[in-house]
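Following up on my earlier thread - several people asked me to post the actual chain instead of describing it. Fair enough. Here it is, all 362 residues.
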Amino acid sequence: MSNPSRWPLRVGLVGYGFAGRIFHAPLVHATPGLELAAICSSRRADVLADWPHLDVVATPEALFARPGLDMVVIATPNRTHAPLAIAALRAGLHVVVDKPFTLNVAQARAAATVAKAHDRVLSVFQNRRWDSDFLGIRQHVRAGTIGRVTELEARMDRFRPQVRARWREMDAPGSGLWFDLGPHMADQALQLFGLPDTVQASLARQRDHASGTDWAQVMLTYGSLRVSLHCSLLAAWAGPRFVVHGTHGSLLKHHADQQENQLRAGLQPGAPGWGLDQDDIMLFDGSDTTRHLPVPPGDYRIYYALLRDAILGRGPNPVPPIQAIALMAVLETAMAASTAGRALALPLTGAECQQWTQVWEK
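Reply from S.P.:
Thanks for posting it. Predicted structure:
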C-alpha cells in the first residue's frame, strides 16, 4: 500500500499515445507535489526522447508492482480502462482513468466497488471542467446573468474527412465520436444542471467508408429546459462552442479553450499565456447593445492539484466514482436512445441518484 503522507506523490503513467504524451505526462510533471516516476509503454524510444531520465516498463503489471509508487494514470484504449483500473486498485494504488471511465455502467460500478473495498482514490480525468469557455459559461449561468436558463447548445466540431485506421474510429465498444467527445460535453451539462429527466439521441456515420459513428446529436431534458450536445467530424466551419438562452437574454461563446492546442504546440503548463482566452462571451439582452464578458483562464493543472489533495486527505476527489457512473449512464443511454428512436431515462438506482446529488450540491 502507498503512504498517503508521502511528498511528492510518485505517479506512474500507463500508455504514451496522444492522451498520455500530450496531456497527462506534462500536467503531472507541472503539478507541485506530484512526481512522474515511470511510464508503461511499447514506445520506449518515444518516451525516452521526451523524458530521458524516467524508467520505462513494458507491461502494466510491472508498473503496478513497482515499489514506492502511489498513483497510476490509465491513458490506454477505452476497452482496457476498467480491467487496468481494477488491477491497479487491487495493487494498492490510487487511480486516474482518462475519459471515458469505462465502456458501460456495469463496469463503472464494478471499478467503484473495488476502489471502496481497497480504500483507494479512484477518479476520472474530466479536464474540460477547467476549460476557459466552460468556466465563463458556468459563471454566468450560476450568477443568473440571463435569468432562468431555458436552452443550452454545446458543440465540439472537427473537420477530419479522411477515416483513419485507429481504434477511436472503429465500430467497437468504446469507440466512435460520441465516446470520444461526448464525455466532455455530457459531463459539463451534468455539472451545470444535474441529472436529466430523459435522454434522446441520434448517432450516425457520415464520412465515406466510416466504420464508427462520426456524428452525434444528443438532447438532455430537464423539465422545460433543453440541453443540446452536438459533435461532428465533417464540420469545416465549426459552430459556436456554446449558445445559452434564458428569460433575460442570451450568451454566445464562439471559440473553445486553447489549452489542448497549447499542449500540442509544446507549451509547458503554467508558462506565460497558459490557458488565456481572448475570445469574450457575448451577452445579448434584446437591446441594441451587445456586451462583451471576459472569461477566466483555463487550467487543467487544477484537476491534478485537487486529486493530489484528495489522496493526501486534504480535500474531496475532484471527479468521484459516483459522478463517473452517472456520466457513463448518460453515454450508454444516448446510444440506446439512438437505437430505440425515443427518449429514455437514466438506468441509475435511487441510491445512486441521491449520492450523485449530494456530491453535486457541495
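The longest strand covers residues 149-157. That should answer part of your original question.
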